[in-house]
Amino acid sequence: MIRADLHIHTVYSDDSNAPLERIIARCLEVGINCIAITDHNTIAGALEMKRIAPFQVIVGDEIHTSAGEIIGYFLAEEIPKGLPAAETARMIKEQGGLVGIPHPFDRLRRSTIHRQTLEELLPYIDIIEVLNARLLFRRQSIMAERFAQAHGLLASAGSDAHRPSEIGNAYVEMPEFNDRDQFLTALAQGRVIGRGTALWAPLWSTWVKLEKALKGR
């Protein structure tokens, strides 16, 4: 079995300054041996991490659509931000990727996909993130679990780490896999495990985003 944290940000995201090397060190420290790098609107960090990491890396992207965020997994090409959600999902599928919905019922985040859009995207969705370590309320996870079960969708979990210390706060314990199709089979057998992150973690990400903007990065 492996421990897969399926939602991690790196210094390539506008609201994270986590170096790739420190992420690797943290994963080795806490026993995470599979990660999905899901930087905002870029796969550059994921591709570099895949090149240097001593464990399995899924190339992902948390894409800002006109209706909220969608995660693409197993991507080979970047998808432009700001497109309609259905078009973004279609482009993920066209390159053989998987469509995931992060923190679907977290109404405290403006980036959460709209409920009506979530329903409209059902033909495209493969994965629902049922545990995001940055969620403040257990009820949000329960709603996500029920939605996934009601629609026959796979359940995932991730720390949504923007700092190395957050990695491993939520993950899926699942069988090993070698490719996209095996990943789907393994995830279906997975067990979601996790706990919450410090309440001030989102504030830290906001500060990093502001700091980078002021530096013109």
Helix content: 25-40%
Characterize the biggest β-sheet: 9 strands, mixed
Give the helix tally.
7
Instruction: Sum up the overall morphology in one term.
Output: globular
Strand order of the largest sheet: 7-6-5-4-3-2-1-8-9
CATH level-four homologous superfamily name: Metal-dependent hydrolases
Structural class from helices and strands?
alpha/beta
Contiguous runs where pLDDT drops below 50 for at least 5 residues: none
CA-atom Rg in angstroms:
16 Å
The total of beta strands comes to 9
Q: How many domains is the backbone divided into?
A: 1
User: Average pLDDT across residues?
Assistant: 91
- What portion of the residues fall into strands of 2 or more residues? 15-25%
Task: Please report the distance between the alpha carbons of the first and last residues.
Answer: 39 Å
Assigned CATH class: Alpha Beta
CATH fold naming: TIM Barrel
CATH second-level architecture: Alpha-Beta Barrel
| Order of helix and strand elements from N to C terminus | EHEHEEHEHEHEEHEH
Walk me through the structure.
By secondary structure, the protein is an alpha/beta fold. The protein has one domain: Metal-dependent hydrolases (TIM Barrel, Alpha-Beta Barrel). Helix content is 33%, strand content 24%. The protein contains seven helices and nine strands. It has a nine-stranded mixed beta sheet. Helix 4 links the parallel strand 5 and strand 6. The chain starts with a strand and ends with a helix.
